[in-house]
Structures are given as C-alpha cells and as structure tokens.
Design brief:
The chain is mostly helical. The chain has 2 domains: 51 residues, Orthogonal Bundle (Arc Repressor Mutant, subunit A); 143 residues, Tetracycline Repressor, domain 2, CATH 1.10.357.10. Helix 1 packs across helix 2 and helix 8 runs antiparallel to helix 9. The longest helix is centred in the first third of the chain and has 24 residues.
Length: 209
Amino acid sequence: MGVRKVKAAETESALKAAARREFAERGYLNTKITDITAAAGRATGSFYDHFASKEDLLRALLADMHAQAGDRLASGDHPPHDLTDPRQLRDHVRVAWNVMSENQPVMIALFESALAAGPASGVLWNRLAEDTEMFRRHLEYLGESGHRLPGDPALVAAAMGGMMSMLAYALIPGDAGYCADEIVETLSRLLLYGLAGPPVPQPGDNADG
C-alpha cells in the first residue's frame, strides 16, 4: 500500500474513532462535522475526502458493526442456519449483543438518527430490515427445510432485531444490574421457546436449552 493510501486509511480511522467519542459525549444530533474533525486532529475539508455527510459516516460505522458480527459468526464451528438449535441461536444472540455493547456510541447515534427522520420516512424499518438480513436468511433456510415459522421471515427477523436493539439501547449503559450472560441467556430462551417456555425434560433427554 502506498504512502498516500496509508495516510488516507489513517485519516478515515481517526475520523471514525473521533465520531464515536463525540457521539458518546454529545449525542449524534448535537455533534457537528467540525467537532469530529477537531477531535480527530484533522482539517475540516479532509472529512469530505472520505464521507459525503455525517449520515454517510454513520452508515460506515454501521457497516463496520455488520462486518464485525459477520467475522465472529464465520469463525464459529457450527453448521450454518439452524436457529432452532439452542447452541447456534445462543451463539448468534451473544455475537449480536456483544457487538452492540462494544459499539454503544454507534447504537445511540443510529437511534437518534432514525427518530429524527420520523416514522413516515421509513428509515427505521429499512435500517431494521438491513440489520437483520442475516437472521432473515437463516429463517428462510428453516422455512425451505420444512420448519414452520411464526410468520414471514423478514417480519420475524425484524421483530427479533427490534427487541434486541431496543433492549441494548436501554441496557448497554450497564446500570440495570443485569450481566451480559444473563441477558444473552434470557433473549435466547425467549426467542427459542416464546412465552410457552421450554418443554419439560424427559428422562434420558440431553437438553441444551
């Protein structure tokens, strides 16, 4: 990689890191592009060499989150798609929760951005559908395999993602007294069994749920 490309990559990384800090401190809506460039120690004009707008920067941070989650799931040793398997579902929930927890400033910014756009804009639904594409693909696989789903895969995936992201938005600060393992286990059981609860174990069963 040439020197110019290295410097460009360093500037982009610095802008992203500064944006995360500013979003955490000021909130997304109150953060200006000049706040981000000043915090990054870069000229204001350099911002537009990498991003068209603050919203474009936020989309890039979201893409980083998606890539982070994808890399972690790809490193697992389970076969793909079977979210009815308690271990696989728990793996997916844990990865999603950890990524959201590690990206609290981005989560806050995403909510503020979507709410500012208003429900009529469709931004929140579009983002939720995009964010839950992996869940949707897994659910479609289950449906094609003969598993009876509770509804349309896209709607079910969005419902799963909406529940998780709203809970993350509320609990990520960590002041509610719930540890990550308890949250992941509760979400996994709720998604797997619903309000009916897990089946009563029978003698000889090797229950993983």
